[in-house]
Write a structure and sequence with these properties.
2 domains; three-stranded antiparallel β-sheet; 5 strands; 171 residues; alpha+beta; two-stranded antiparallel sheet
């Protein structure tokens, strides 16, 4: 019996036994009950749907993402990429996340938390980059400037405002 608790149990429930109903595959609900002592290993592939793999509904998953974003905002410099972050800082955030979210599914090597962390940081940096680009476009439209690139000096020249260095003072 002790080994049965550690193993994953799969229960199959038939909704209907009539042959005229939907196909047999659609009549079954597969419910996977995962024991908390077993950790979920990281699947292979380019993109991992974390919510689906961890069997989380949207509300739970969004709550965990919000928690990660709050921790990142409080403790991490988002300007620095994931690879260049200090490992101690990352480990501290993972421990804080685990302490605040004790019901988060256990994963091998905390891969799911690290992936949420990395995605959140990359999204935040990309969002800031889009905002800066949009601000630059607004300034250029207000000044009605024409941007050209001087290939010899490799500088961006703005006809009505001078160089791009002068423009950065206005931002």
């Amino acid at each position: 019996m002790a080994t049965n608790k550690k193993l994953n149990k799969i229960t199959v429930l038939n909704q209907s036994k009539k042959s005229s109903d939907l196909p047999v595959q659609q009549n079954r609900i597969l419910e996977k009950v995962v024991d908390e002592t077993v950790s979920i290993s990281k699947p292979t592939g380019a993109y991992i749907n974390i919510a689906k793999i961890l069997n989380l509904n949207n509300e739970e998953f969004n709550g965990y993402k919000s928690s990660i974003r709050d921790l990142i905002e409080a403790y991490i410099d988002v300007e620095t990429s994931w690879e260049k972050q200090e490992r101690r800082a990352i480990l501290k955030i993972i421990e804080k996340f685990k302490g605040n979210n004790s019901h988060f599914p256990k994963t091998t090597g905390d891969w799911a938390i690290k992936e949420l962390f990395r995605r959140s940081m990359n999204n935040k940096r990309a969002h800031q980059k889009r905002l800066k680009k949009k601000e630059m476009e607004v300034i250029l439209k207000k000044n009605k400037s024409v941007i050209t690139r001087d290939k010899i000096k490799n500088k961006v020249v703005i006809s009505s405002s001078g160089t791009a260095d002068d423009l950065s003072d206005k931002v």
